[in-house]
Amino acid sequence: MDLGLKGTVAIVTGGSQGIGKGIIKILLKEGVRVVDFDVKNPDYEIDYFKVDVSKKEEVIKGIEYVVSKYGRIDSIINNAGIESYGAVDETSEEDWDNIMNVNVKGAFLMAKYSIPYMKKQGKGVIINIASIQSMAVQKRVAAYATSKHALLGLTRSIAVDYAPQIRCVAICSGSIRTPLLEWAAEKEVGKEHIEDKIREWGEVYPMGRVGNSEDIGYLTAFLLSDLASFIDGTCIVIDGGLISLIPISSPAR
Predict the structure, then answer these.
(1) Which superfamily, per CATH, for 9-175+212-238?
(2) Catalytic position from the list 144, 162, 205, 218
(3) What are phi and psi of 108, to 5 degrees?
(4) Any catalytic annotation for residue 162?
(5) What is the mean pLDDT of residues 20-42?
(6) How far is the CA of 101 from the CAs of 118, 159, 182, in angstroms?
């Protein structure tokens, strides 16, 4: 299906691997001109600009690069994110600040410095890659879960403040097969059992698997298109049915 995105200009943060890479793959298929903002060089061919999204000066330089090269910014996909494990008393202040700076401040800065261009154009879309941990929380992810909850507040605020010209939508995904998920599996069971652990996690999902980055890419492309023109200020869940599942085997009342 042609979503009408050909020739539009999108910035994807954290696009060098994982979910961001999957999003870029699908957007390129739709003819989108994509720029990857990341601290890590991509291992594939893409217009890349090195940006640490937690740093204002780097964000501004990156956005100026895109505008000078393409003349516009049609969409921002705030995907860059980091994670660490720990309950509140186990989380260092440094880890807390790092996660908030990348996951929340990064999305704020990208929106802050791209919105003026979108306003001039009279149109734009911002997608924040949140998580089902924006709604429900597992153990020992205090900083990460807090950051993903915060993204929902940012999403709603942007939507209310800038509609109807600019839409803002969050994507709340379940477990997606990425280097970050593999890192989490390795921390639990060791490198030699990563595949077994990811398969085990997938069996919890009604769909019987974890997601893949292209799943998020197809949803992102749809949300960027005019077919989604009445979707704003909300979180679209893509989790293989996980949050619909009552996690007990006995009858629930």
Answers:
(1) NAD(P)-binding Rossmann-like Domain (3.40.50.720)
(2) 144
(3) -60, -50
(4) no
(5) 98
(6) 24, 22, 23
